[in-house]
Write a structure and sequence with these properties.
The complex is a heterodimer. Chain A is an all-alpha fold. Helix content of chain A is 77%, strand content 0%. Chain A contains ten helices and no strands. In chain A, helix 4 runs antiparallel to helix 6 and helix 9 runs antiparallel to helix 10. Chain B is an alpha/beta fold. Chain B has two domains: 246 residues, Rossmann fold, CATH 3.40.50.300; 315 residues, P-loop containing nucleotide triphosphate hydrolases (Rossmann fold), CATH 3.40.50.300. In chain B, 34% of the residues lie in helices and 24% in strands. An eight-stranded mixed beta sheet of chain B has the order 16-17-18-13-19-20-22-21, sandwiched between helices. Chain B has a six-stranded mixed beta sheet with strand order 6-7-8-3-9-10, with helices on both faces. The radius of gyration of chain B is 25 Å and the shape is globular. The chains are: A mainly alpha, B alpha/beta. Chains A and B meet through helix 7 and helix 8 of A and helix 13, strand 16 and helix 14 of B.
C-alpha cells in the first residue's frame, strides 16, 4: 500500500471523517447539479412572486427573495461560490505558505529571520484595512477575494510549516541524507515535504472553514461577491434584512453555512486523528 | 510470608499481553534482580507494584506487600503505601524530580504528607538523608533545583527521596542506564551501602549489574518468568535457553579477545583536529574537541571511548562533515577534506559514511525500506536502471541478513535491530572505505547487539572496511576494535592497541574506566569504585590536566601543566606520571 492509500484506508475506518466528508460531498453534489436541474435561474426577477415561502410548486423549494428570484438556485450558487472561494484560497495559502515556511526553516539563519519578520509585519496590518485598500486600488473582482483571503491565511501556514521544518531539519534522517550526498532542494522535496504532509493536510482542512468565514464576513459587509452573483455570506446578509417577513431567507443559507463549517471542522479533527494514528502505529 | 508476593500477575493492553502469569516473591532485606530485554515487561511489573499503571491496562492476579493487596486498591490506600512502604528510583531523575521545587522541599513534603515528621525535625531528617546519599554540602543542595545538579547527583537525590520515609522495599528501575560508567559504579555502590534492611528489586537489562549486586535473580522474557534462582547458580548453570543466550551475549571487558592490529598505510589521517563552538550571546568558547590525532588504516577498527561530553561524537561528526567548525587537518585517501559535507567532493561523500545511534530516527519515516536503501545509488550511481538498482538493494539486504520481504516496509514496522541493519545497508551500498559508527549498538538489546557487531566484523573481513567505532561501552569495544582512543573533555587521554590497553592501561582515567565496568560474572563482578566525582563542565574545564580533580595519582604539577601526549611503552598517553602506572 502506498502512503496515500494507507491514509485513505485509515480515513475509511474513522467515523468522523466519513460522516463529515460524506455530508460535504452530498452538499457539493446537490449544489452542482441543483441549478442545472431546476427550471429557474439565479438572476431572473419575478415581481409577481416576491417573498414567496418554500413550496414544491415549480421547484421553488426554498421560496423566493425580495426581488422574486428563486432562492433554491441562488443558495446552491452561493454554496458553489463559497466552496470554490474557500478551497482555492486555501490552496493558494498552502502553496505560498509551505514553500515560504519550508525555505525559511531549512535555510535558517539570517534568511529565516528576514523572512519571518516580513510575516510578522504583514500580521500587524489590520486585515479589513488591507482588503479595502486592495479594493480601492484594483477593480473589484472574483480574483481579489482569493488574494485577500489567501494573503491572510498563508501567514499562519508559513509559521506552522517553518516550525515543523526547524525540528525536521535537526532529525537524524536529514543528516543521513546529507551524508549520502543528496542535494539541498532534493532533501526539501523528498525528505522534508513528505514529513510535513500530515500537519499540512490537517491544517488545510482547518483553514478552509476560516476562509469560508472570512468570505462570508466580507460579503456580509458588501466587500465580497457582488450581485447578481452571490455567496452564502451575501444570502445571509440579505436574509437578515427580511428576517421579520421571510425568515427562510435567513434560516436556509445560515443553516447550510453552519453545516458546512461544522463538517470541515470535524473533517480536520478526524484527519488529525488519522495522521496521528498512522504515526504511532 | 514474604515481604512482596506476586501471584499470577497479568497485565494487558487492549489485546496485547505485556505480562502474563508472573509469580515471584521478595523477602525482607533481600536484593533481587529482575532482568530482561526491552519489551519483556520489567517496567510494567514495577509500575504494577506501585499501582501506577495507566487506566488502559487490565491487571489481574495478586500483588501483596506485607499482606496488603495492591491490585485493585484505591488511590488513597496506594498513596499511603508509596514512599512509606515502597520507594522507587527511575531511570531518568531529571523527569522524576519536579523542576520547580527545591530538592529539600520535595523530600520534606514526603515526610509531612505521611505524617512522619514535621517542621525542623523534618528538615533535620532530610538533611541527614542528603548527607547519607553523598551529596556534598547538604545544606546547599537542600535548596537546589534538579537542573542545578549533575546527572549523578540528581540520581543520588532521587535515591534520597525514595528512602527518606524508610520503606520496606526499594524498586530501582534501570537506575544507572542514563549515567556514565564511573558514576554508575558510584550509584550502585551507594544503593548497596545505604539500603540497610530495605529490600531491593533492581530492574535492569544489564546482566553485569545483577551479577555484582543481587543475591537472587529473575529472568523475564515476553512477559513471562522463565527462570529464577540464586545469582551465582544461575550464572554458572542456567537452565532456560534464553538465559544462557543472554549470558553468552553479554560482552565481557575482562576476557574478550580483541582482534590483532593491522598494518598498512593510513586511509584517514586526523591531524591535530580541534572543534569549538561559540556560545550564543556569550564570549565563552566551548572547546568540544582539542588537538586530536588519529590514523585509520584499511581493514582496521579504531574505537573512540569516553564518557559524556568527552567530544567523541563531535569528533565523528566533524570528520564526516556534519559539523564544520574545525581547525587542523583531515586527510582522506591522500586528499585534504574540509568544510561541511555539502561542499565536499562526491567521491569523499561516497567513501565516508556514518551510522547513527538511534536507528529509527535516522530513517525517513515516510519512506519504504527499498527507497531508503536505494537512495545513495540515486546520487552515486545515477545511470543504474530501475531493475539493476533493485537487484543491488536485494543483494545488499541479504548482506545485512534481511530478506527482500522487507523492501515494502516502513521504518516504524521494523524492530530496533532490523532498523539498524537497514541503516547499515544504506551506508554500505555504495561500498564506502570508512564507516563511522556513532554509538551504533548502544540502543540495542544484548543479543541483537551481538548480531550487529558480527555483521560489522564480517563486512570488514570481506571488504576491508575501516571503522571508527564511537562508544561508551568498553566491553563492546574490547570485542571489536584493533585500537582504542580514550578521550576526556575533548582531549586525548590514551591511544593504544586494544589488547594492550585492556591489560596495561597507562592513564589513571583509562584504569578507572576499566575498573568501573561491571562484568557479567558473580565471581568477578567488576564495577569497582575507583574514581570520585563526575565529569566537570566543559565550559570551565579544570586547569592543567583536566582529569586532575578526580585522579588518585595527582601531583602538584598536574594542576598547572597540561600533559602533552607522548609515547610510553608503545602507548600514546597524556599523563605526567604514565611510567608509574
Amino acid at each position: 500500500m502506498s502512503t496515500l492509500a494507507k491514509a485513505v484506508a485509515h480515513m475509511r475506518s474513522s467515523k468522523t471523517v466519513m460522516m463529515s466528508g460524506g455530508t460535504l460531498c452530498a452538499i457539493a453534489l446537490v449544489a452542482l447539479i441543483g441549478p442545472w436541474v431546476s427550471p429557474n435561474d439565479y438572476m431572473t426577477t419575478d415581481f409577481d412572486r416576491l417573498l414567496h415561502s418554500p413550496t414544491f410548486n415549480s421547484m421553488s423549494l426554498f421560496g423566493t427573495d425580495d426581488l422574486g428570484r428563486d432562492l433554491f438556485v441562488r443558495t446552491m450558487l452561493g454554496v458553489q461560490v463559497t466552496l470554490v472561494v474557500a478551497i482555492v484560497a486555501s490552496v493558494v495559502s498552502l502553496v505560498i505558505g509551505v514553500l515560504y515556511g519550508a525555505t525559511a526553516g531549512y535555510v535558517g539563519g539570517r534568511v529565516d529571520a528576514v523572512m519571518m519578520r516580513f510575516v510578522d509585519t504583514l500580521y500587524a496590518m489590520p486585515f479589513i484595512f488591507f482588503v479595502i485598500l486592495l479594493l480601492v486600488v484594483f477593480e473589484q473582482n472574483f480574483l481579489l477575494i482569493f488574494v485577500a483571503i489567501g494573503a491572510v491565511n498563508w501567514l499562519d501556514m508559513a509559521r506552522i510549516v517553518r516550525g515543523q521544518t526547524l525540528s525536521l531539519r535537526e532529525r537524524e534522517f536529514v543528516d543521513a541524507a546529507r551524508l549520502i550526498g543528496v542535494s539541498t532542494p532534493r532533501i526539501i522535496i523528498r525528505h522534508i515535504a513528505p514529513n510535513l504532509l500530515g500537519v499540512v493536510i490537517v491544517y488545510v482542512t482547518l483553514t478552509i472553514p476560516q476562509a469560508i468565514l472570512i468570505e462570508s464576513f466580507l460579503s456580509f459587509l458588501g466587500l465580497g461577491i457582488q450581485e447578481p452573483q452571490t455567496s452564502l455570506g451575501n444570502l445571509v446578509s440579505g436574509g437578515v434584512l427580511q428576517i421579520e417577513n421571510a425568515s427562510w431567507m435567513l434560516l436556509i443559507p445560515a443553516t447550510l453555512l453552519a453545516v458546512i463549517l461544522l463538517c470541515f471542522n470535524f473533517l480536520g479533527d478526524g484527519m488529525r486523528d488519522v495522521f496521528d494514528a498512522r504515526r504511532s502505529r | 510470608m514474604s515481604l512482596l508476593e506476586i501471584n499470577g500477575l497479568s497485565i494487558r493492553y487492549a489485546d496485547i499481553d505485556v505480562v502474563s502469569g508472573l509469580s515471584f516473591a521478595v523477602d525482607t532485606s533481600e536484593s533481587v534482580g529482575l532482568v530482561g530485554e526491552s519489551g519483556s515487561g520489567k517496567t510494567q511489573t514495577a509500575l504494577a507494584i506501585l499501582g501506577l499503571l495507566p487506566r488502559t491496562a487490565t491487571v489481574s492476579g495478586s500483588i501483596t506487600l506485607d499482606g496488603q493487596e495492591i491490585v485493585g486498591a484505591d488511590d488513597g490506600a496506594m498513596n499511603a503505601l508509596r514512599a512509606e512502604r515502597v520507594g522507587i528510583v527511575f531511570q531518568d531523575p531529571m523527569q522524576a524530580l519536579n523542576p520547580y521545587i527545591p530538592i529539600g522541599d520535595q523530600l520534606r513534603r514526603i515526610l509531612i504528607q505521611h505524617g512522619i515528621a514535621n517542621g525542623s525535625d523534618a528538615d533535620q531528617r532530610v538533611m541527614h538523608m542528603l548527607h547519607r546519599v553523598g551529596l556534598p554540602d547538604p545544606a546547599r543542595q537542600f535548596r537546589a533545583y534538579a537542573h542545578q545538579l549533575s546527572g549523578g547527583m540528581r540520581q543520588r537525590a532521587m535515591i534520597a527521596s525514595a528512602l527518606v520515609a524508610s520503606p520496606d522495599l526499594l524498586i530501582a528501575d534501570e537506575p544507572t542506564t542514563a549515567l556514565d560508567v564511573t558514576v554508575q559504579a558510584q550509584i550502585l555502590d551507594l544503593l548497596e551501602r545505604i539500603r540497610d534492611d530495605t529490600a531491593l528489586l533492581l530492574i535492569t537489562h544489564d546482566l553485569a549489574i545483577v551479577a555484582g549486586h543481587c543475591e537472587r535473580m529473575l529472568v523475564l522474557q515476553d512477559g513471562k518468568l522463565i527462570e529464577e534462582g540464586k545469582t551465582r547458580k544461575l550464572f554458572s548453570a542456567p537452565v532456560a535457553a534464553h538465559t544462557r543466550a543472554m549470558i553468552e551475549a553479554a560482552p565481557r571487558v575482562d576476557t574478550a579477545a580483541s582482534p590483532q592490529p593491522v598494518g598498512g598505510e593510513p586511509l584517514l589521517d586526523i591531524d591535530n583536529v580541534s572543534v569549538s563552538f561559540q556560545e550564543r550571546g556569550r564570549q565563552l568558547q566551548l572547546h568540544a574537541v582539542q588537538d586530536i590525532d588519529l590514523e585509520l588504516r584499511a581493514g582496521e577498527t579504531v574505537a573512540v571511548v569516553g564518557e559524556s561530553v568527552s567530544g567523541k561524537s563531535t569528533l565523528a561528526r566533524s570528520v564526516v562533515g556534519l559539523i564544520s567548525m574545525r581547525t587542523g587537518r583531515v586527510v582522506f585517501c591522500g586528499k585534504d577534506i574540509e568544510g561541511p559535507v555539502q561542499s565536499r567532493a562526491i567521491e569523499t561523500r561516497r567513501d565516508l559514511q556514518l551510522v547513527f545511534q538511534d536507528p529509527a530516527g535516522s530513517l525517513d519515516p515516510q519512506m519504504r525500506v527499498e527507497r531508503i536503501v536505494a537512495e545513495p545509488l540515486a546520487v552515486h550511481a545515477p545511470d543504474l536502471d530501475a531493475e539493476a538498482r533493485k537487484a543491488r538493494v536485494v543483494s545488499m539486504l541479504e548482506r545485512v541478513g534481511l530478506s527482500d520481504e522487507f523492501m515494502p516496509r516502513f521504518p516504524h514496522e521494523l524492530s530496533g535491530g532490523q532498523a539498524q541493519r537497514i541503516a547499515i545497508a544504506r551506508a554500505l551500498i555504495v561500498n564506502p572505505k570508512v564507516l563511522v559508527c556513532d554509538e551504533a549498538v548502544a540502543a540495542l538489546d544484548g543479543s541483537v547487539r551481538r548480531q550487529i557487531l558480527a555483521l560489522l566484523r564480517k563486512e570488514q573481513q570481506q571488504t576491508g572496511l575501516a571503522i571508527i567505532f564511537i562508544s561508551h561501552d568498553l566491553a563492546v569495544v574490547r570485542s571489536i576494535s584493533h585500537r582504542v582512543l580514550v578521550v576526556y573533555l575533548g582531549r586525548l587521554v590514551e591511544l593504544a592497541d586494544c589488547e594492550h590497553m585492556f591489560i596495561q592501561p597507562r592513564h589513571p582515567y583509562t584504569r578507572a574506566l576499566l575498573d568501573a565496568v561491571p562484568v557479567p560474572d558473580p565471581l568477578a563482578p567488576g564495577g569497582r569504585l575507583s574514581v570520585k566525582g563526575e565529569v566537570p563542565s566543559i565550559l570551565e574545564p579544570p586547569s592543567g590536566c583536566a582529569f586532575h580533580p578526580r585522579c588518585g595519582f595527582v601531583h602538584a604539577r598536574c594542576k598547572t601543566e597540561l600533559p602533552r601526549p607522548r609515547t610510553v611503552g608503545g602507548t600514546r598517553v597524556a599523563c605526567h606520571r604514565a611510567e608509574e602506572i
